[in-house]
Amino acid sequence: MELMVSGAELIWTGKRELAGADLLCRGGVVVGVENGAARPPSPGGPDGSNVAGSAPAERLDASGCVVIPGLVNAHHHLLQSAFRTLEGTRHVRMDRWLATMGGYYRRAGVDPELTAAAAAVGVAEGLLAGVTTVADHHLTWPEGQDSAELAAATIAAADGLGSRLVFVRGTAGDDAETAAASVEALVARHGAGEAHGMLQVACGPAGVHSDGPETFAALAEVAARHGLRRRTQANEQVDVERAAERWGRSPLDLLDDWGWLADDVTVAHLCEITPAERARFAASGAHATHAPGCDVPMGWGVAEVGTLLDAGVPVGLGTSGGGSNDAGNLLADARLALQVGGLTARPPTAREILAMATTGSAAGLGRPELGHLEEGAAADLCCYDVGGVADSGVADPLAGLLWANPGRRPRHVVIGGKVVVRDGELQTAEPALLAERLRDMMRRRLEDC
Q1: CA 60 – CA 6 distance, rounded (Å)
Q2: 3-class DSSP state for residue 417?
Q3: Residue 107: its pLDDT value, please?
Q4: From the CB of residue 44, how many other CB atoms can be counted at a distance below 10 Å?
Q5: Taking CA 414 as the corner, what is the angle to CA 409 and CA 420, rounded to the nearest 5 degrees?
Q6: 18 forms bridges with which residues in the sheet?
Q7: Is 60 strand, coil or helix?
């Protein structure tokens, strides 16, 4: 199957900016980006693709659009899509927030039905905002629930909507051996993931605030056995406080000692680290994920993104979950990162932030085929219309994706060469039905709140 994205005002591949270019995808992969008029489909080859008599490439109208790689949300908690703006969860200390959220989880009764409904809403919200890959760090495993079925519910929801998913089997105080066995079962059932695949499995504790060295060691062992990426969080408010109280150390000291500063590890948040910590983090080869839509409004800290980039740290971008960031719009959070960056020592540029939301996030997932549109990349892309009044007068349309038009939504979203959002409409589900299902479910389950 071929898809030609034609008529774009500008295509940003992640490396190049091409005006008046067309992009050709075949078999879910980018096969060329060219200036000028759209190319005709190439003749068929020995693999049988595009053989004589087959249908010509589908043309996707991108006139008046800036085309960029699909956004990669490197840090989400999809379950929290069901728990937004709840009483007692805004502008509070992180320890209080954790306790309050835990109470809501218990009252709602987290089970596969709720997990599936929340994941469907969160994934659909992301797709409509241009997110083609989402990493879900799932941390809630209620006693009495089958962890395999909870994971399968999220995986099935993403699959049904046509989104790429990185399912992170997380822990937050779980028994170390139980968590490791759960990861083993997850890999046995779903596989670890492969290049250009729709599902990838990863693992990692919530952070040193919730788990000790035994859990970090157990998950490191299973990750090494199956070649999984490791993910955790560090340096939000409670993480720093509890590390000091329990061990008299900083979170990054502990992660280093426990073998969790390495090139297969991605650490979310990294708020307000010291210059010495930044240098050590950079030397380790570990990746970082910025989540300003969570940390900034909650008052839990600010990551110095520009200085991290200057130190050579690969940085991605994530929304975190709906319990702290009530939206899953990664481009909106990219804009916030750009704005908040003006208060830091070295403000990042719009292009740096866009790179974080694409290639930077993909690098942290170990997915070199994602986050760019050069030849051989996965055919994941977004077309953003820049022809309206909100973009009028914008001299730099690529930077304008962030600086101008808050709340911008893509006209089209393509994943693996398939159009999943066309003219702003989700093609794989009815968003209103997904929303109604979750809304009714939460109303029933929290009716006494």
Answers
A1: 6
A2: coil
A3: 96
A4: 13
A5: 80
A6: 11
A7: strand
Give per-residue burial for 409-422: e unless 16+ CB within 10 Å, then b. bbbbbbbbbbbbbe
In single-letter form, the type of residue at position 368 comes to P
Nearest to 351 by CA among 2, 10, 39, 1: 10
DSSP, res 356? I
Closest CA to 229 of 363, 128, 107, 52: 363
CA torsion sign for 179, 185, 189, 191 is positive
User: CA separation (Å) from 357 to 74, 115, 165, 265, 364?
Assistant: 8, 26, 15, 18, 11
Q: Which amino acid belongs to residue 287?
A: H
**Rounded Cα gap, residues 99 and 76, in angstroms:** 19
Q: What is the DSSP letter of 378?
A: B
Q: Which domains does the chain carry? A: 2-69+373-426 (2.30.40.10), 72-364 (3.20.20.140)
Count of CB atoms situated within 10 Å of the CB of 434: 22
The structure tokens listed for 178 are 């139980």
4's enclosing H/E stretch is strand 2-6
Distance CA 115, CA 100 (A): 19
- pLDDT of the chain along its 449 residues, tens only? 899 999 999 999 999 999 999 999 999 999 999 875 434 444 444 333 444 445 668 999 999 999 999 999 999 999 999 999 999 999 999 999 999 999 999 999 999 999 999 999 999 999 999 999 999 999 999 999 999 999 999 999 999 999 999 999 999 999 999 999 999 999 999 999 999 999 999 999 999 999 999 999 999 999 999 999 999 999 998 999 999 999 999 999 999 999 999 999 999 999 999 999 999 999 999 999 999 999 999 999 999 999 999 999 999 999 999 999 999 999 999 999 999 999 999 999 999 999 999 999 999 999 999 999 999 999 999 999 999 999 999 999 999 999 999 989 999 999 999 999 999 999 999 999 999 999 999 999 998 55
C-alpha 421/C-alpha 29 separation (Å) is: 18
Per-residue pLDDT reduced to its tens digit, 282-330: 999 999 999 999 999 999 999 999 999 999 999 999 999 999 999 999 9
Strand, helix or coil at 179? helix
In the 3-class helix/strand/coil scheme, how is 288-311 assigned residue by residue?
Answer: EEECHHHHHHHCCCCCCHHHHHHC
Distance (Å, whole) CA 448 – CA 355? 45
| Sheet with strand 164-171: strands edge to edge | 71-76, 131-138, 164-171, 199-205, 229-234, 265-269, 287-290, 315-317
Which ranges of 172-236 would DSSP assign to H, the alpha helix?
Answer: 176-190, 213-226
In whole angstroms, what is the distance from residue 432 CA to residue 434 CA?
Answer: 5
Please name every residue paired with 30 in a beta bridge, in sequence order, or none if there are none: 25
